[in-house]
Amino acid sequence: MNGQAASADPQLQHFIEIESQKQRFQQLVHQMTEVCWDKCMDKPAPKLDSRTDMCFVNCVERFIDTSQFILNRLEQTQKGKASFSETMSE
After folding, report:
1. Tens digit of pLDDT for each residue in 78-90?
2. Which of 30, 32, 51, 88 has the most CB atoms around its CB within 10 Å?
3. Neighbouring C-beta atoms of residue 58, cutoff 10 Å
4. pTM of the entire structure?
5. Is the CA virtual torsion 74, 80, 84, 85 positive or negative?
6. What is the pLDDT of residues 11-35, one digit of tens each?
7. How far is CA 28 from the centre of its chain?
8. What confidence tier does 48 reach under pLDDT thresholds 50, 70, 90?
């Protein structure tokens, strides 16, 4: 019975992975909203003026660019570590 518990159901693993991705996405949206709101919103108004609107657009785009850059850099670092450890084991 313990052997079965150790090898989790692939569908369950996939579901957990999808839910984790959803949670990370929601955290990213929350963080981006907080950062851009603090940066762009001087005072709440019934309508966004063009300056505030453009600030939000630029902020979100830079946030996404930065997040993607960091993700790519982390992937490169991990690949570099994997290559290094493979070289060391040979």
Report:
1. 888 766 555 555 5
2. 32
3. 13
4. 0.59
5. positive
6. 888 889 889 888 988 998 898 899 9
7. 5
8. confident
